[in-house]
């Protein structure tokens, strides 16, 4: 595979800033939504289920179109904003409530700072997204512009495995033990990975849209 077979757009112009903004926004909104557990029949999940798969799609777009370095900048920015959001909610939580504001317990129940969960969330996100981007770019170096589905599924399989394993271990290891812990990890991983596979047509459409509208989409180092 020669360098001319692998293309990337410049991240200094074009749609890159807009996609980064969407990426970070989806991440923050899904993290806030994730504080609520929801049930669809026997399936129990959290509110992040609606938007978090789109975070990975946006991450795939950044990696596929702009390369690993550009994707890494967006991922680190999202990590920093997630830390800032967690610290902000913690400061609001511990600040004395006004005398006529009676919703302190409600605020703590919904947006309260739980160190173990917050640490698990941001660590799982960082490791998973970086691996997702790195694997996608490495596969692209071998496949060029062909076989996009291999890059998307392969990177998702690795990234989601790392994300799920890190999150579940930090958040629930010792709380869930033995077979219960293993089932929780496996079910969570399979669910998130299958969602990404179901959304492959969306990923294809978005990546195609961005590539066609990036005039600088040409051979660039990853």
Summarize the structure.
The protein is mainly alpha-helical. It contains eight helices and two strands, in the order H-E-E-H-H-H-H-H-H-H.
What does this structure look like?
By secondary structure, the protein is mainly alpha-helical. It has helices at 16-33, 52-66, 68-94, 104-111, 115-143, 148-172, 178-198, 200-212; strands spanning 37-40, 43-46. It is globular. It starts with 15 loop residues before the first helix and ends in a 10-residue tail after the last helix.
Low-confidence stretches: none
Q: Can you tell me the overall shape?
A: globular
Distance between termini? Answer: 14 Å
- The tally of beta strands, per DSSP, is 2
Strand order of the largest sheet: 1-2
Spell out the helices and strands N to C.
HEEHHHHHHH
| Average pLDDT for all residues | 86
CATH second-level architecture: Orthogonal Bundle
CATH class: Mainly Alpha
Structural class: mainly alpha
**Tally of discrete structural domains:** 1
Largest sheet: 2 strands, antiparallel
User: According to CATH, what is the topology?
Assistant: Arp2/3 complex 21 kDa subunit ARPC3
